[in-house]
Amino acid sequence: MERDFKYTNAVIALPLFFVLSLWIVYWVEIRFHYNFATNGILPRTFSGLQGVLFSPFIHSDLGHLYNNSVPLLILLAALQFFYPKQSFAVIVYGILLTGIFTWLIGRTSYHIGASGLIYVLVGFVFLKGIITKYFRLVALSLTVVILYGGMVWYIFPKVDEAISWEGHLAGLLSGFIFAIFFKTPEYKKVIKYDWEKKDFDASEDKFMQRFDENGNFVNLPEEVIEEEQPAYFTSNILINYEIIADKKNESKPES
User: Fold this and answer.
1) Helices (H) and strands (E) in the chain — how many of each?
2) CA 102, CA 174: separation in Å to the nearest integer?
């Protein structure tokens, strides 16, 4: 059945590979004394556009990296398990769209970190489960709210001046957009009964006709069956036919 969730190696490999790449970038920065912060998003500058691609892989310190790694492991695994057909598009387009939004609305400073992608995943997983109305995905949405619902405060300015609330807001909006835009026909409700169809007319249904407007059970009116008239005339009277020769038209015998 298409609705059955299937575990694959990608459920573990994808989040591990992505998070490992963040740690490798941070290790290179520390080991070789680089400062990748200038490769982040610098809003409304041409050079700052490079951060649209690079900013999710750059972190300011170990605490920043660790705080982003744990949610990424959980949310990427959930994304790959429940939405495998959409996972790649959500990650790639999520990074790009979040970066562009941040570049447009952000303060004039470098915006770095994978938190924008985290908000993309939270927004997508939450809203998509609500839209599908499939009970397992709705349960996943509620789980995301319980685990990461407090993150919503960090999309507002002046909550913490040290964080990029613009990146968080951009990520959450991007996740919502993808939840609406990306279709999941595999989770579409299967119609089993006639009353679930959009064109169902209760007045034409024999079962529904047995209930009045107040919901009381009533008997259907007896149908009047009209007797079919025979296609020919019949009678019980015996009729005898007599054949009379027409003498006027008979030919005389030759003599």
Assistant:
1) 7, 0
2) 11
* Band of residue 255 on the pLDDT scale cut at 50, 70, 90: very low
The model's pLDDT over 127-181, given as tens digits with 9 standing for 90+, comes to 999 999 899 999 999 999 999 999 999 999 988 888 999 999 999 999 999 999 9
* C-alpha 54, offset from chain centre: 29
What pTM was estimated for this model as a whole?
A: 0.76
Q: What is the CA radius of gyration of the chain?
A: 38
Mean pLDDT of the chain: 86
Can you tell me the distance from the alpha carbon of 91 to that of 220, in angstroms, rounded to the nearest whole number? 59
Residue with tokens 């303060």, as numbered in its chain: 107
Phi, psi (rounded to 5 degrees) for 176: -65, -40
What one-character DSSP code corresponds to residue 47?
A: G
CA distances from 13 to 6, 17, 83, 179, 244 (A): 15, 6, 15, 24, 109
Q: Which two tokens stand for residue 36?
A: 């990748």
Distance of CA 166 to the CA centre of its chain: 26
Cα separation, 216 vs 210, in Å, equals 8
Residue type for position 97: L
Look at residue 102 and give its three-state secondary structure: helix
**Mind spelling out the 3-state secondary structure of 144-192?**
HHHHHHHHHHHHCCCCCCCCCHHHHHHHHHHHHHHHHHCCCHHHCCCCC
Q: Please determine, for residue 3, whether its predicted confidence score (pLDDT) is greater than 60.
A: no
Residue that the structure tokens 């070789």 belong to = 32
Q: Are the C-beta atoms of residues 65 and 122 closer than 8 Å to each other?
A: no
